Amino acid sequence: MSRTAPPTPPPSATAATPRPRWRRLLLGSVGVLAGGLLAGAMLVALGLAVAYPNLPDVSELADYRPKLPLRVYARDGSLLAEFGEERRNLVPFKDIPPVMIKAVLAIEDARFFEHYGVDYRGLLRAALANLVEAKSQGASTITMQVARNVYLSTEKSYLRKIYEVLLTFKLEHLLTKEQILEIYMNQIFLGHRSYGFAAAAHTYFGKSLQDLTIAEAAMLAGLPKAPSAYNPISNPKRARARQLYIIDRMLENGFITEAEAKAAREEPLRLRRYDAEQAVHAEYIAEMVRQTIVERFGEDAYSAGLQVFTTIDPALQKAAWRAVRQGVLDFERRQLYRGPERFIALPADPAARAAAIDDVLTAIPDSEPLLTAVVLSADPRKVVVVRGDDTPIEITGAGLEPVRSGLSDNAPPNLKLRPGAVVRIAKNAQGWYLTQTPQVEAAFVAVDPRDGGIRALVGGFDFERNKFNRVTQSQRQPGSSFKPFIYSAALEKGIMPLTVVNDAPLFFPASVTGGKPWEPKNYDGQYEGPMSIRTALAKSKNMVSIHVLRAVGTQSAQRWITRFGLDPAKHPPYLTMALGAGAVTPLEMAAGYGVFANGGHYLPPVLVTRILDPEGRVLLEVPPQAPSESNRTLPARNAFLMSQLLNEITRSGTAARAQATLKRPDLYGKTGTTNDSQDAWFVGYHPTLTAAAWLGYDTPRNLGRRATGGALALPIWIDFMGQALRDTPVQTLDPPSGVAFVNGDWVYEEYADGSYVHRLGFNDAAAPLPGEAPPDIGVDPHEKRSILDLFRQ
Question: Where are the beta strands (DSSP E) in 577-667?
């Protein structure tokens, strides 16, 4: 029996050969990874779909307009002041020097022109470095920094980082590399309120961006990472180390040669140092401009980049500031010592002592030229003080005179100079001396009478201490400096310089005043009898001025002073007007005397001449002024005769010191001292410059014995004019038509025959003239007593 072979199983039933385990794992991993990537891509796509539409619109950066400060300029274009949170000079990319670009790229983003916003190579390098270093490294490109600085906050979160990357891509898509770099170079904060490298170049080196060397550019390029930590002024060692690192990076990237790198490493840096002598102190002027511009343009003025040009002359402003400071300090040296400003404990430990001294020097800052110091030891022959640098300063001899009472054994505790006393010191040609912060104030303003431009203005001793502008805001009695306006009115009444007036005591009984009797006096209490108008004004005789005003008429005089820009409401029509009992500001006085200086034209004072936007477009242009018949307020011959009288004052009168000191005859002016010596004035002019100087206390009080305008205000004026007129030739005044020289003096032509008023004030009684108001008719009883008391000795 034969056997049959078993049937062959179908192929599907054949046993499968098992696959290797590793292959199964690989295939599974690839599947998971693919799924993860797909899910991740879907999440990214979803994130982009949700986040991208919510990103800020960056198209405006194509026309980049950063916040630019309000800048105030002098008439020569030099910068006087800036207002705004950010100091910035906008520089187009084409004007940024290559050395600055190379320094920034070397340290911030060397592959900037190669990547598309995110430097993956840099990210990998930073990640590897962060694995082995305790301190993390960043990998932000310049585009990422622009996205962060312009649009995002500084918070550290994954969400912000995602937005930063998305914004980076958007910026790279819409802007060119050059546009992005231009924004970065102008936007980045670099310390000391400086935004952008152009502003930083001026802040740290006092030069333009185009003038930077490799070493200086490398120093500035180190600031973006941490402006305070790498600040060359406050942290020179750290700044130097980072500068050297950047120079090395510039060399590694082929931006500079080995020779250039070596020269840059060896180059000594000359940081900008503050020079008080060269600084233009225009704080009061800047504040006047700021208020004007903000009133006109609103708060946007601080960031709109407005450029305001003024009439200020920097050289004259420096001279005015120095003259005011010196005048106040000279007055203060003659005052009683009021004691140290504070007392501190001086620990025995050197470090603790240095810290205590640093703290008080910070709390009581310097007020140039007054420096804050702390006493280490004191006796009647020597005082040793120290400032923040630990170098002791010894003060002896004449340097101790201003504080002599504080060195006495019997000095009370609040006056006693002892270790720990916080004092003020200053330096003059003789050396260091001790002094004190002044309580008295001063103001000065100079105006060009040919166009009304304010050339210099100092509103007080220290703007930081007191921002009240005494030139424009302080209403003070002008005293005898007001008399020329009255004498000008008298000329039109036929009272000529040759007119003789009786300088004799005057008495107005109660029946005339309607109240208490009034007995005015001359400042020195002396009476010299008959004298000419020329002599009386030169000697500032009060009795003569009262006779002159009575002859003119108080109402007529009140109307006349409007020709000088003065407000008649502030000068009531009473005889006390003859002695300057009204109210004026120094600026009003300077402008008023300008009418005499320019031959009879009132030109309102001008400070702002032009306002430009950041692109240089004119927003406001003030038309220039010049003397013309349309602004004539005084006959030319009146101004000429008044100049002759005012010239006599600076030659032989109460201001004779002016011509004697400056050695030139073309000076004109009048001193002024008010009742009880509360205000000291001198207002005067040269044909090219009119100036008013005032000194007094903000709360009026006596300035002391012999405190006159000639002693206190005139020296300030002389100090200023000595600088202002240094290169100005002597100018004589040509007599206009309508005048004649008769018997040694000038008169109006119609009086050449002697028909002018020959005599005044020779009546026995001081009764009112016809049509004249008594000294205080119609005045409130309280105001009446005040007016009468103004000039009672």
Answer: 608-612, 618-621
Whether the per-residue pLDDT at 769 is higher than 70: the answer is no
Q: 234-243, 493-502, 610-619, 685-694 — which is least confidently predicted?
A: 234-243
Closest by CA to 144, choosing from 121, 174, 114, 112, is 112
The whole-angstrom separation of Cα 643 and Cα 593 is 10
* Contact between residue 312 and residue 454 where contact means Cβ atoms under 8 Å apart: yes
The whole-angstrom separation of Cα 479 and Cα 677 is 10
Bridge partners of 444, per DSSP, are 458, 693
Confidence (pLDDT) at 206: 87
Tell me the two tokens of residue 372: 């804050």
Alpha-carbon Rg for the chain, nearest whole angstrom, is 39
pTM check: above 0.85:
no
Q: 763 with 514: CB under 8 angstroms?
A: no
Active-site residue list: 108, 480
**Strands of 70-73's sheet, edge to edge?**
79-83, 70-73, 307-310, 608-612, 618-621
Q: From CA 238, how far away is CA 765, in angstroms rounded?
A: 86
Q: How far apart are CA 460 and CA 441, in angstroms?
A: 6
Kind of pairing, strands 441-447 and 454-458? Answer: antiparallel
Return the structure tokens found at 505. 């005591």
The answer to whether 75 and 312 have CB atoms below 8 angstroms apart is yes
Taking the CB of residue 788, how many other CB atoms lie within 10 A of it? 22
Judge contact between 305 and 693, C-beta under 8 A: no
Residue 454 bridge partners (DSSP):
447
**Cα-based distances in Å from 385 to 235, 388, 396, 502, 701:** 27, 10, 11, 59, 33
SS3 (DSSP) at 689? strand
The pLDDT of residue 124 is 64
Q: What is the pLDDT of residues 151-160, one digit of tens each?
A: 555 555 555 5
Q: Which amino acid is at 310?
A: T
